[in-house]
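Translate structure to sequence.
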């Protein structure tokens, strides 16, 4: 077996314009697999310490420079940096870069290989294009939010995971990788447009198609996979903790009712009768309340019943659960997460580590090529660069 190769994105230069959760998450994915990610921050206000980190915590393996893109000097530095960069992450609302005279056409004229990933919430066209929004709003207009939640309650979003991180940051990273792959053939970069409405709608493809089948043909909270089915749900235990049940297949269901000692329910024909579901759910509910979660864990440990404990993050951290990267490339793995950075992020202050990154990229030095001012980093002598 050959020795491990370098991380797959090592050597890739990425500039991330500071933004909210989705774009930093895309940058985090690239950084975790070896890319050199430089965040462009606004210079901190005069009443704020320049060493204070921003609220962004998705900063692992990144560095920062503070640049005032509203100033001529700041824009000059920004464009000079991008001249040798592979990817620009743009988290701004439509028209912001253009208002700064930093349109994609201008930026790519100087660096045709540049890939500009533009991540927005709503589509760039249509009735919401100019509106502000957050994860819940993008979920709402995509049609997905209306499918989430209990039948007797309001639609309920799963925090901001679906639109911000899955439909936004994750799919933005996918778009970047697609553009990088295409660049190997054409030699040219391009603009990658990603919006969270289309992203989360795409994630909901199976749900959308299943509406016209028996799998998902009923209102919210009354279907097989959305809390309507008693053998695909969460149940409280005697100690207030929870167990998750997903015994869809007949052989898993049989093992579930055996573990619950509800042998009278070991009848697959009766199981499919929806009229019996409320009674079955109530029996499940009462039975789970008879034991603690730990007791149920012992009963179902190693059993193919698709019945597992619901663990919370505090519990996982206390037990030193090992967080890992989402994808493992056996020959060229990403950067290993140590125990501390799995659970705690110190954040990143504007300007932290960025000068070292620019030196590694271009050999630029402070004083000779660059100068740190209260209004941000600027070029000392444009002719030298």
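Result:
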């Amino acid at each position: 077996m050959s020795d491990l190769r370098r991380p797959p994105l090592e050597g890739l230069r990425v500039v991330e314009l500071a933004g909210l959760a989705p774009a930093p998450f895309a940058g985090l994915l690239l950084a975790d697999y070896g890319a050199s990610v430089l965040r462009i921050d606004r210079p901190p206000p005069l009443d704020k310490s320049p060493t204070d980190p921003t609220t962004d915590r998705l900063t692992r393996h990144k560095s920062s420079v503070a640049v005032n893109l509203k100033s001529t000097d700041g824009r000059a530095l920004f464009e000079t940096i991008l001249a040798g960069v592979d990817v620009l992450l743009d988290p701004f609302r439509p028209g912001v870069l253009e208002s700064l005279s930093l349109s994609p056409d201008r930026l790519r004229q100087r660096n045709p290989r540049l890939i500009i990933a533009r991540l927005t919430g709503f589509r760039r066209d249509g009735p919401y294009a100019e509106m502000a929004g957050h994860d819940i709003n993008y979920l709402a207009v995509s049609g997905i939010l209306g499918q989430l939640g209990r039948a007797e309650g309001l639609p309920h979003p799963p925090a901001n995971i679906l639109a911000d991180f899955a439909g936004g940051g994750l799919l933005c990273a996918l778009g970047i990788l697609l553009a990088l792959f295409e660049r190997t053939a054409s030699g040219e970069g391009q603009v990658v447009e990603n919006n969270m409405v289309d992203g989360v709608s795409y994630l909901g493809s199976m749900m959308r198609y299943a509406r016209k089948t028996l799998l998902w043909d009923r209102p919210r909270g009354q279907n097989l996979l959305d809390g309507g089915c008693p053998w695909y749900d969460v149940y409280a235990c005697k100690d207030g903790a929870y167990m998750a049940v997903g015994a869809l297949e007949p052989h898993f269901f049989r093992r579930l009712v055996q573990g619950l000692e509800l042998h009278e329910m070991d009848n697959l024909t009766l199981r499919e009768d929806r009229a019996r579901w409320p009674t079955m759910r109530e029996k499940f509910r009462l039975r789970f309340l008879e034991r603690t979660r730990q007791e149920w864990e012992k009963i179902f440990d190693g059993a193919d019943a698709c019945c597992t404990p619901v663990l919370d993050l505090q519990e996982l951290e206390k037990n030193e659960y090992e967080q890992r990267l989402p994808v493992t490339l056996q020959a060229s793995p990403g950067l290993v997460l140590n125990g501390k950075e799995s659970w705690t992020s110190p954040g990143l202050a504007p300007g932290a580590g960025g000068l070292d990154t620019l030196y590694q990229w271009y050999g630029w030095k402070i004083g000779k090529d660059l100068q740190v001012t209260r209004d941000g980093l600027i070029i000392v002598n444009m002719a030298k660069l």
